[in-house]
Write a structure and sequence with these properties.
Immunoglobulin-like, seven-stranded antiparallel β-sheet, 576 residues, 3 domains, single chain, seven-stranded mixed β-sheet, alpha/beta
Length: 576
Amino acid sequence: MTLTTPIVNDFDNIFPGENWFFYWKTASSLWEEKLATTDDFDSIVIPLNWGFHSETGDKFDFGQDKPEANLVKLVEIIQKLNKKVSFLIPVGPAPYLANGGIPYLLAKEPSFYHQQVWLSLDGEKQMHKMFSFYEPKVFKGFQKFITTFKNYLVEQKLQVSVLGFSPFFAHASKIISYFEDSSPSYEQAFKRFLEGQGNKQITLKSIDEERIVHTEFRRNLKDLYEESFKEIIGEYWDGKLNICFLGGSPHNFVNRSFGKEDELGYFKDMLQVCALNMLPSTVLLGQERSELLQDVSKSYFVDILASEKINENFYEDDTPLIFSRLNLFSLFIQPGQHFQAIWQKSYSPLHLLEQRYQGTYLFLEHTKEKYQNVINDERNRSIHFFLAQYFDLDIFHSIIKLFMHGKQIIIDINNISETFARKLEAFFIENKLEVQKVNFHTIVRSVSLGDGQIILYSSQPLEVLDRKSINDFWQKILSLFTFKHPEVTGDSGVIEYWLERSPLNSELNFESIRRVTLCNVVSYKQKATIKFPKSFLVLKIVDEQNAKVKIDNGVLDIAFSSKGSVSIEFGFIDEY
């Protein structure tokens, strides 16, 4: 079903974004001609279309009947063009595919979100109804498809990597999984889950308890799909991604059905997605996306993919001119926790970070690998936020290690357990560390050792403060650290994002090279101002499009016309 009549653009349909190639949307005889036009990166992402290779879920076509299903030919063409191949397989409903990707005869039970059938629009404004992955036949069919695909790779001796991904969408400052479901299939599966508890039969006594059990069940089944996929695909496994599809929410579905674009909303969603270290994708937007949105999304997509070391060949080369996201702040959560419930409270630092340090903060799950990466990275000058109420021994020892390695840490000690309160005080006493105190809305304590610094505060007294007082509090806290960052102010339609890279040999006076890109994502004029401290030196202004820049005495004034953008590179002298 098509809700509107789109202008056909073959390139957008086949290459919908982020270097994805929809092989089933063009004749196999044209594959080489189309693929030869892609020169941005040396890897091509091939999202596998389960339903295209099997209508029944029982028999599979890999070129026997449809030439466009011949993956061997496709891989050979890509490798002939000196590009690498990564197959991408959705573990859950894929909003860009008919039936969410499920073969026609297995698509029996529609998936529901808040009692409404899941619907999505792809880049051609084709409407797709998605079907439940909680149906037992779908799980068995998925296993059979992955097994058949794995055997096909082995038989054909294809040298490729295979990535799994979980699909998400953004809505109302939340990132929501397409695995969310309230269909009859889900309810029946949940009932079987409760019945299967045996002697541990769950009795749901409250709405909150029921919500927790539902969340656990969804996570368990999602993990079952992912673990089964990983086990079956074996040596071809190259990792799992979390991909958020811009324009994929039910709210976006309604707006896009009537031709209403929300470019500003897409940009804001993308920054939020990247803060979670998830991959943003514009493949649903087609011609709705601007060139600017496409370029920024592709930059983030490739950067996050490379930073996760899932596919190290996504960059064209290893020159130091490659920029990556600037990360000034890290907010830690435990695996499985939802960041909204933890860091979006009115008194948290997140509101100031969104306002003053747009796009420079990151949510990180607490894992030993993440901590070790932070410790090993000597250039990491992030300020790390923790909530003491979630402390366990592993987290506590990791924080001490970070501190001993010269890292900067802020801890909310509200609701800290007596055990860890004593451990923290014992650590200060045993190491003869001086504790400095100041009273500013709440008692703030500061402890230093070499370059390392810990700030302790309790958020409880902040709960009654207004927004301005809370922002003033966090500005004061951040001033206790020596880091510097330019102050960007702009009209509501201006989006900013920051990148950094290592200096070249000719730039060794600088700790790093930082680039800010400012984009006017609305169709009318906007203004922005950048005030930068003496530790930042303007090196060059690049990619000026519909924008004029004036610089005077440490201030950059920028005037944007419609859809204007500009990038400014600074040399940063670390005073830390």
